[in-house]
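TL;DR need structure tokens for one chain.
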Amino acid sequence: MPFSLYKVYAMSSDKTIRLTAKDSEALRHIRNTIVHTGKSPSVREIQAMMGYKSPRSVSVIVERLVNKGVLAKRGKRQLAIVEEPEKHLFDASTVDVPIVGSASCGAPLLAEEHIEAKVPVSVALAKPPHRYFLLRANGNSMNREGIDDGDIVLVRQQTTASSGEIVVALIDAEATIKRLRIGKSAVVLEPCSTNARHVPIVLQRDFQVQGVVICSLGKLNYPERD
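>> reply
TL;DR here they are.
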């Protein structure tokens, strides 16, 4: 059966889950809110997102998703996604991840905190309930790791990282993408470049980890906000 804009069919391990277009829209809003805030939206917040005049319609959709095993209620007002029905057969399993500026892959550059755009990214990469953001890489100091000048990298937001992970680090309000090496008396932010001019940055604890790089998405074309 072909897909349509109004009905989604998807397989879980032992059953077929059928979603309407409104089911998928509500699930997308709930997923986005959980990823970006750590909490599920209220019925009235979903109502505003979907443009309904009454919360009753949203309550019906939420109950339907609960009955289908897609959502579960946690406590009085929290919802959790327990099944991603579209993930293998339909590209609606995405979360909107903001592009928040640029980070250096050469000398550190000032991180731009404004959101330029939001890009739908598969939940297979941006896995809830973690929070994510996208950064544009400047320079070629990480090109041996497949991060080239102008590439967009997907970053999982966190304040700690293990030695060997590629991180976005904040040094004196400037962001840079480097591989983290943790030693006994110092921390090294290490370039991975074909350009020998890039050298490691040696620090103690005078920096902040902003996140761990999950992957490079290459060059993306997207409409920037006005």
